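Residues pack. One example:


***
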Amino acid sequence: MTASTLTSWALLVWEELDARNLDANAIFREAGLNPAKLSNAGARFPVTNMVQLWGLAQDATDAGFGVAAGERWNPTTFHALGFAWLASNSLGDALHRLARYGRFLNDGLDYALFSEKVLYRFRVSANLQRLPAASRVRSDAAGDAGIVAFVKMCRLLLGDSFSPMEVASPHPPSGASILLEQYTRCPVHYGKDYIELVFDRHDIERKLHSGNDELTQAHEQIILKHMSNLEQDELSAKVQLSIMERLPSGNVKETDIASGLNMSSRTMQRRLLDEGVNFQSLLQEARQKLADQYIRDENLSINEIAYLLGFSEQANFTRAFKRWTGVSPTRFRTDALADV
C-alpha cells in the first residue's frame, strides 16, 4: 500500500502559499495533488506527491518556508489525534499517544518515545519498508515544519516558555537554521536521519490539570476507525477497535470479536501473530487505558470498574491493576484525586 498522509498537513502549505500571494492551486496541481481534497478532513495524499509539494513550495519562496508553515499548525491539523493530544494528562501521555497512533498522520513514518534516565527522546524516522525511494528524498521545508509543529504542540500543553533540551534535524544547516533555532530556543543538531526532540523528565511527567480521559478515549476511537479503514490488511487495528467498543459493556470474548470480523478464532489468532501481536495483548492494552479513565470517576465503584472491563471478579481486576501500576486501584484513586 502506498504511504500517505492527512491532507490537513498539506493545508499548512496551501495557507502559507496563499498568505504570500502565490498561486497555491497551480503548485498543488504541479505536484499532482487535487486541492479539492483539502476540504475533506479524513482525506489523504500520497507521501511521494507531498515530497514534491514541499520542494515546489520552497523553490517558489525561500528557505524559511517550512518554519512559517509549521507555525500554522493547530489541533485540527492532526484531526482527532490533535484533540486527544490537548486532552492528555501529561506531555508523556500525549507523546505515548502520538507514538501509538502516529501512522494515522503519516503511515510512511515510525514514531517512538525513549526513556534515558533523566530525559526522554521522541523520534520520527522514515519507514523504509513503506516508503518508496522517490518518497525518501529529503525535504528541508517539511522537516522544519515538522519540528516547529511538534514544539508548538508541546507549548500548547506546557506553556509558551517551554523549550526542548535539544532537537535533531534531518537536513544540513541552511538559510532557515537561525529561524529554526530562534523558534525552538535550544541547540539544533543537523544532518541526522530523523527528527528528534529531547525532553527533561520533569516536563514529561508533570501532571496537566487540563487532562480529560473521557475526551481522549472518544477521540482514540475515532482514530482507530480511520486506521481500520486505512490499514485494510492490518487486522490488529480492527480488533482493537472492536475491543474498545465492546469493553464498556463488560462482555468481550475472542470468539465474538472474530465472528464480528467474519472470521474464525483460529484465523484471527494466526493473522494477529503475523502482525506481532495477539488478542490478549490487545485486550490488556484496552483494559489498561479504560481502567485509567474509570478509576478517576468517583461515581464508579471498584467492583463496577472490574465488571465494565470484563473481569469476572474484583480480585482479578485488582491483581491486573497492580501489575499495570504497582499499586492497588483504591490507592491509585486516592492519590489521583488528591492531585486534582
Q: What stands out?
A: The longest strand covers residues 109-116. The chain has 17 helices and seven strands. The domain at 233-338 is CATH 1.10.10.60 (Arc Repressor Mutant, subunit A). The mean pLDDT is 89.
